[in-house]
UniProtKB/TrEMBL annotation:
The keyword GTP-binding does not apply. Residues 28-61, 150-169 are annotated as: Disordered. Residues 83-469 form the Solute-binding protein family domain. PROSITE patterns: PROKAR_LIPOPROTEIN. InterPro entries: Peptide/Ni-bd (IPR030678), SBP_5 (IPR039424), SBP_5_dom (IPR000914). Keywords: Signal. It holds the Pfam family SBP_bac_5. The keyword Ribonucleoprotein does not apply. Residues 1-27 form the signal peptide. The lineage of its organism: Bacteria, Bacillati, Actinomycetota, Actinomycetes, Micromonosporales. This is ABC transporter substrate-binding protein.
Length: 546
């Protein structure tokens, strides 16, 4: 989903990592050297769903800010290259099961305290401990002892029973060696584990986090990255400023960053064109027609390809959507090529696989449910007993999703005779709150931006029972078993082969519908002379020069 930054220093592992370049940008204005030591920029954003705690943030509005405020053990280069060390001095293993991690000495949190090995261990234990309710807790499942600290609700969130009390509060697989070294023992060899460590859920937390409530901390978060928190005015803006004691390579070249929350992306675009906004990650769909955005922005326009996919998911907890034949019928009734051609004017590609093809281990063309086949769709719908009532497809209305969601709904209505329509939820924050509360009354937009470059990230969080972003509560024991085998495979090749088997089952169940592969059209102000995009298309704020 996230994590940016350029990188230095290779991970000390024998395995090779690769990611197709996702596109980066730099622009040079005329007028000599760029100078910006005390400058300020304003970028567009969305209201975070929750207070800003790394292991409890799964959406991009809050995730983008966490990426800027924190630095983890590893980072993912902007050009899509192999994960490389950031705060880690070294990550060593001889068996892909026991990892010895050494961190760089005397780096600081924003409150002036030193980042130590215990700050990682304590943060991971807190995130994994199920009574704390961290949405990203499942990312710690590789670690030995996770089952002792994380228990599942036996009858789901709506049931009367509560999850049993965990046996322990700390995972047995985490051990602090000294201030700069800690050891991680996994339940089984896991070759992809070091690749994950740049994802925000693995960030360190300062001692101050553990002296109060997570919610209060998240309203005034303390990170260890190149910018620190200043203020948060709900649904208006979040202010950040340069952390002058930041000691790693990517230091800020500007001083202040304001993340402005817009209720409509057309308003943000108007500010971008007029010079009142310095960066917009995705221009509105309306601006794509006739390449209007290019004429509006000229050399300030940035086109890139990102490892993200536009998805529509099913709330499988709703009995109306529990028949896989119905779900497959709906998916087969959607003409993805028409959507990308007519709505996105060729700036997206129709999805044909379950993982974005830019991702290591992703197999192209493995989504047979993504094919357009009205006759088969009608046959499956009849076998499923039809669909009665209204099929509402929800989306957040504060970004450009109205046009394509309405087009999808119309195709389903025309091709299957289902009374389908699209409906917008005013803000992304409210939209995500409803999804997390399992209160969706119809299919819903659920796009995915990868957290780290491996196909595992497109399976375990989304389709394994209890996965951090398995919001529709899809569950298939065979998928779970294959994914577990894949996650504990001794090599990445073996892991990817086993995930491919799991994906074949997912393709038959159709828990969601991949619609398009992401193409991104961004823009910046004339004030910005140099900048880069991250590997997932976010602004790398440390690269900005004015």
């Amino acid at each position: 989903m996230r994590v940016s930054k350029r990188a230095s220093g290779a991970i000390a592992l024998g395995a090779a990592f690769a990611l197709v370049a996702s596109g980066c940008s730099s622009s040079d204005g005329e007028g000599g050297e760029a100078t910006s030591a005390d400058g300020a920029i304003t970028v567009d954003g969305t209201e975070p769903e929750n207070p800003l705690v790394p292991s409890n943030t799964t959406e991009t509005g809050g995730g983008k800010i966490i990426d800027w405020m924190w630095t983890g053990l590893v980072e993912y280069p902007n050009n899509g290259g192999a994960p490389q060390n950031a705060l880690a001095e070294s990550i060593e293993t001889t068996d892909s099961k026991v990892y010895k991690i050494k961190i760089k000495q005397d780096t600081k949190f924003h409150d002036g305290t030193v980042v130590k090995a215990k700050n990682f261990v304590d943060a991971w234990n807190w995130g994994a401990y199920s009574p704390n309710g961290a949405q990203n807790s499942s990312f710690f499942a590789d670690i030995e002892g996770f089952a002792d600290v994380n228990t599942a609700d036996p009858d789901g969130p709506e049931g009367p029973q509560k999850a049993p009390e965990p046996k322990a509060k700390e995972m047995s697989g985490l051990k602090v060696v000294d201030d700069w070294n800690f050891e991680v023992t996994l339940a089984a060899p896991t070759a992809v584990f070091p690749t994950k460590l740049g994802y925000s859920t693995f960030m360190p937390l300062p001692d101050a986090f553990f002296s109060g409530s997570a919610e209060e901390f998240g309203k005034k978060p303390i990170g260890n990255g190149p910018v620190k928190f200043v203020s948060w005015e709900n649904n208006v803006q979040i202010k950040l400023t340069r952390f002058d004691d930041y000691q790693l390579r990517d230091k800020m070249k500007v001083k202040d960053v304001t993340v402005k929350m817009y209720q409509e992306d057309t308003a943000a675009y108007s500010d971008l064109v007029s010079g009142n906004l310095d960066f917009m990650q995705q221009v509105p769909v309306a601006a794509l027609a006739g390449d209007k955005w290019k004429s509006d922005l000229a050399d300030r326009a940035i086109s890139s390809t990102t490892p993200s996919t536009g998805i529509i998911a099913f709330p499988i907890y709703d009995k109306r959507f529990q028949n896989p034949k119905l779900r497959r019928a709906i998916s087969l009734s959607i003409n993805r090529q028409e959507i990308t051609d007519k709505i996105f004017f060729g700036n997206r590609k129709p999805a044909d696989s379950w993982a974005n093809p830019l991702t290591p281990g992703a197999a192209p063309g493995n989504c047979t449910a993504c094919q357009f086949n009205v006759d088969e769709a009608k046959k499956l719908l009849a076998e499923a007993g039809g669909f009665s009532g209204e099929l509402v497809m929800y989306y957040n209305a504060d970004a450009s999703h109205k046009e394509w969601m309405e087009a999808v709904a119309q195709q389903v209505k025309t091709n299957l005779g289902i009374n389908a329509r699209a409906e917008g939820v005013p803000t992304f924050a409210v939209f995500r709150q409803n999804i997390n509360a399992h209160k969706m009354k119809g299919a819903y937009r659920a796009g995915w931006q990868q957290d780290y470059p491996d196909v595992e990230n497109w399976v375990n969080p989304l389709y394994v029972t209890g996965g951090s972003s398995n919001d529709g509560l899809y569950s298939n024991k065979q998928v779970d078993a294959l994914a577990k085998e894949a996650s504990s495979a001794p090599s990445l090749d073996a892991s990817h082969a086993k995930f491919a088997e799991a994906v074949k089952l997912i393709d038959q169940d159709v828990p969601s519908m991949p619609i398009y592969f992401g193409g991104q059209q961004s823009g910046h102000s004339e004030k910005i002379k140099k900048m880069e995009l991250s590997n997932v298309g976010e602004l790398d704020i440390t690269s900005v020069e004015l």
